[in-house]
Amino acid sequence: MEHPDHAKQDIFKVKLSKSEALFLKDLISVDIVQQGADFYVLGSRGLYVDLLDKLSDKLSEIGLDDKDIPNEKGLRVENLIDKFSAIVYD
Fold it and tell me: What secondary structure letter does DSSP report for 63?
């Protein structure tokens, strides 16, 4: 039988502003937790790897102009990628 600690995964919490939370929720399917006035994404490192993949795809789809320079949406996506990268690549 597996030891209980081995089955446990670390859960990471990333705080988002309200505008980031709404933007992310509109962009991809993700659960966002609201605690008071604060918004968070809660999940394992695997969830954040998946989010980074989805955000990278969205950046390519909607966030770059014809010269591959980030537009306004692209800059917002890049900001979210930076936040979640800290969990994945820590």
Answer: S
